[in-house]
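Notebook entry, structure prediction.
Reason for the run: the old model in the group folder had no record of what sequence produced it. Starting over properly, with the input documented here first.
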Amino acid sequence: MNDAERSPRVAIFAPSPALVLTFEHGEEGHAPDIALNVGGQGPWVARAVTALGGTALLVVPLGGDTGRAAYHLLAADARADRGELRSVDVGAAIACYIEERKGGERTCIRDTPPGRFGQREVDDLYSAALAAALDADVTVVTGSPWPDHVDPALFTRLCADLAQLGRPVVADLSGEQLDAALEGGVDWLKIAHDELQLDDPDGADDDALWSEAERLAAAGGHTRNVVVSHSDEPALVLADGERSIVTMPALTPLDSRGSGDTMAAALAVGLAEGRPLDELLRRAAAAGASNAVHKGSATPDLALVDRLADVVTTEQVGPER
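New structure, fully documented this time:
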């Protein structure tokens, strides 16, 4: 297969997978459907990458009974989707949670956090991430929702080394992990508006959102592109020194979980494909919307993404201040 025929390859650094058991309640009087899958931000990004036509190289730690079960599920997905599972054996079990879904609402019944990594396990995970990035066109760096699970310094070191290696990075992080990655340097940052460091993100006006986006664009002494997703509102984008608003027509959401991860995956796939900026942004917005109109986290429909991208609009609203 020559380069023109090869699918875009996206490495995903996924330090916090979770084994998820879902009870899906349908009609009254009927037993719920039961689904077992591997969730968490990294696996969701990988799932969206393959749905969008890319090859996902998923770098993920797996340990304990939950990790052994997750390995078989992820390996089967990789074989079916022609992806690559780059699993790293660790001693501690990965996270697990049990949820139920009724009338479109998800409720967590029980959950348990992951165990901490040993230093040698961190080194193995780091080495696997670097090797995958060198085998890929673009790397997506995802984080952990458990503050004490991963040392933020790992993100600084990883992003700095990827920058030295000339490997493009899309980061989808928040909090201390975000600050650490920005210190190392990333090319694209995708962040939800409610994860911005503002007192009241939902009540903030556009000037406050743009100011925070511009701070993030220059944090750590690096210049980067920033996409601020805003639920069903237009996304704010700083790219190539210009402000843009990306608007997707309002659709009726069925399950929006994973839409942000799908947007990050679409950015990575589009960058790997070499798409021009306007097309890249329109497809990222379309991918997030496609995920939200049906059940299943980070499972966009590629044909629908192609069609929706035609109705997304981008509008430049001036240079950065």
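Summary: The first strand starts at residue 9 and ends at 13.
The old model has been moved to the deprecated folder.
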